[in-house]
Amino acid sequence: MARPKFDEAVDVLSLKSARAILRSILRDSKTVREVHEELENLNASLEYRESVYKALERLVAAGLVEKIRDGRSVKYGSRYSEVSADFVREKLSLEGVEG
Question: Which segments of the protein form a coiled coil according to its record (predicted)?
Fold first, then answer.
């Protein structure tokens, strides 16, 4: 999988909800339903499961999250354990690359 592009990653990570989702799937891959239920318990701002799905797909498109087929279901997992951005150099530092 290609390395995430700076602008796409920063754009999606500017959303508090996307960062909450990324934290949710940091250690274990989860389905949309599992992420939604966890965020509901944390009183996060993502009310609808479809909103969680759209945010996860944006994270996938940015290259920060991967889709994992698990039988008939799809799980989402973080590709990195840490993401840092250097805005002056427009560079991402990515740690814990999986795969």
Answer: none
Give pTM, 2 decimals: 0.86
Closest CA to 30 of 61, 47, 55: 55
Residues 6+ apart with CB under 8 A from 35: 21, 24, 25, 52, 56, 76
Q: What residue numbers bound the domain in which 12 lies? A: 6-95
CATH of the domain at 19: 1.10.10.10
* Overall domain count for the chain: 1
Amino acid at 44: A
Residue 1 located in a structural domain: no
